[in-house]
Specification:
With 530 residues, this protein is α/β, with parallel strands linked by helices. It folds into four domains: 3-183, Rossmann fold (3-Layer(aba) Sandwich); 188-325, Leucine-rich repeat, LRR (right-handed beta-alpha superhelix) (Alpha-Beta Horseshoe); 329-468, Toll/interleukin-1 receptor homology (TIR) domain (Rossmann fold, 3-Layer(aba) Sandwich); 491-529, no CATH class. It is 39% helix and 17% strand. The strands form three sheets. It has a six-stranded mixed beta sheet, with helices on both faces.
Length: 530
């Protein structure tokens, strides 16, 4: 074999569980090529190396590691397992009761530290079994090992022939596993995101194959990342493209320097667990509202401010609703071209775009050089709110405004009318707009109008779901009814009726507050009185 071939020879680390006097003598015989008198005690961790020819002109090296069983060496167990490719367990087939427990315990430990790596179980002392008949427990051990798609081989304690055969089969399993893993290269989208994150933290993010605590890396399935663990890495930003990880279920960003998340985080439709504990967030990221399937949101130990403090320990559905009310929205301003200057559309747009929770504001003059119909058709369906500057021109004589209103209604976009001075609320009611959910333009104090409008939008977002269009329709109708009832309850007739029936009305109120009657019953009884 050439020197170059030797330098590229594969080396496989195998951790041994030799069950003391059962496997250690025969394994040392195999590794050293000669029998040894007595059994040497292992202090800490030691290993032996052997070169094997697994195929003609194909050599590999195996490193067989063993760990001392004494309690004082438990702290180095992680080093013992690190980088292992496989494991070998020995037990005595002449003592299957002890062997059954030993094999199961070692299996559990291997799974904990190494995940699903190849395992070879040697049943030693075959020559001690009379008539070579196995007990039921031996068969159970064999069935268990083979059901896990691992190797189970009987061997004699006075012969190493089956040891050699078994280890060569184990190496073939390792090689086949490596080939399979190399064929499971990530899809380009996921790989690009892993590469971008690796560049940010200046270290390679490894593929994980083990279920352990405090992990760093990612797990993949069918060439897609399904779990991503990036704790304690000093991250202050996350790539926008992370939203392309369509199959990501777990995202752990604990103990970093994050104060915000990219808008695309809401595209992680498969996410069930998000951990952003121990970062630098002041407010709960509004992008979380879109994570409809998330079951766990971990937010602890951030410098939370204001309302966020009240929600960090709430269930995910309540956190998402809180975030939805604060989420950024897009607004389209519908107006007649002739009203552009009088109603200061450009100034209105600039003001709104500089406010929190408003991402973008559109108006048709942005696209006068293009096809205005195409502009409207592409922008309005993606908005959450349409502000309609209602004047005689826009209501009665503008085909563009009519088209914009139709688009908003077809896509269930909420409409807020701003009534101009040259028409009445009755005029607006004739085209289906409500004064209960609108404002009047204040030409004389434009600065105050801007503040009032933003406050109105701010409150509107919290009362009406602007993202779930079906729910938003119900929210709007309910708010209109509340406003109608509220105004009518202020009338003199209602005041006089309540005054005359004070004891009855008050009694109903007390019963409802004490949950003695339902809201429906309360309304029915009030209707009888009123």
């Amino acid at each position: 074999m050439t020197e170059n071939a030797k330098s590229t020879m594969a080396i496989y680390k195998i951790v041994l569980f030799e069950n003391w006097d059962v496997g250690r003598p025969i394994m040392r015989w195999y590794m050293e090529g000669k029998k040894s008198d007595g059994i040497r005690m292992t202090l800490g961790v030691d290993f032996q190396v052997k070169t094997l020819e697994i195929n003609p002109n194909e050599l590999v090296k195996i490193q067989c590691w063993r760990l001392a069983g004494q309690e004082r060496f438990a702290s180095i167990r992680g080093t013992f397992y690190k980088g292992a490719h496989a494991s070998i367990i020995f037990y005595s087939s002449s003592n299957p009761e002890q062997g059954y427990t030993y094999v199961k315990d070692r299996y559990q430990e291997i799974k904990q530290y190494l995940g699903n790596l190849p395992i070879l179980v040697f049943a030693v002392d075959a020559e001690k079994i009379q008539n070579n008949t196995y007990s039921n427990l031996n068969r159970e051990i064999q069935n268990f090992v083979e059901s896990e798609k691992n190797l189970y081989i009987q061997t004699r304690s006075d012969n190493i022939e089956n040891i050699d055969k078994g280890i060569k089969l184990l190496i073939q399993m390792i090689i086949e596993k490596e080939k399979k893993e190399k064929s499971e290269i990530l899809e380009d989208a996921d790989q690009n995101i892993i590469n971008a994150l690796s560049k940010l933290i200046e270290k390679e993010i490894p593929l994980l194959r083990v279920d352990v605590e405090e992990v760093f890396g990612y797990k993949a399935e069918n060439k897609r990342v399904i779990e991503l663990y990036l704790p304690n890495l000093g991250l202050s930003t996350v790539p926008e493209d992370i939203g392309k990880m369509d199959y990501l279920k777990i995202l752990d960003l604990e103990s970093n320097n994050l104060s915000s998340l990219p808008e695309s985080i809401g595209n992680l439709k498969s996410l069930v667990l998000l951990n952003i504990s121990k970062n630098k967030f002041n407010t709960i990221p509004s992008e979380l509202w879109q994570l409809k399937d998330v079951k766990i949101i971990q937010l602890n130990d951030n410098p939370w401010f204001g309302e966020s403090n009240e929600y960090i320990n709430k269930p995910p559905e309540i956190i998402r609703d809180f975030c939805r009310k604060r989420a950024n929205i897009q607004i389209f301003i519908s107006h007649a071209v002739v009203d552009f200057n009088d109603y200061k559309i450009k100034e209105l747009t600039n003001f709104l775009e500089n406010q929190e929770e408003i991402y973008k504001v559109f108006f048709c003059e942005e696209d006068l050089k293009g096809n205005i119909d195409n502009f409207m058709d592409s922008k309005i369906p993606n908005c959450q709110l349409l502000i309609f500057i209602a004047t005689k021109k826009s209501v009665f004589n503008s085909l563009d405004c009519k088209h914009e209103m139709e688009l908003a209604r077809n896509y269930h976009i909420q409409i807020v009318p701003i009534k101009g001075a040259d028409l009445s609320w009755r005029d607006l009611e004739s085209i289906g707009l409500s004064r209960e959910l609108g404002l009047e333009f204040n030409k004389n104090n434009f600065e105050q109008f801007l503040k009032d409008l933003y406050k109105y939008i701010y409150d509107y977002k919290r009362n009406i779901d602007l993202f779930n269009k079906e729910k938003g329709k119900v929210d709007k109708l309910l708010l209109e009814l509340i406003n109608i009832f509220g105004e009518n309850l202020k009338s003199k007739n209602i005041y006089d009726t309540i005054k005359e029936n004070f004891e009855k009305v008050n009694d109903l109120k007390v019963k409802f507050a004490q949950e003695q009657i339902s809201f429906n019953s309360l309304m029915l009884e009030l209707m009888k009185i009123i």
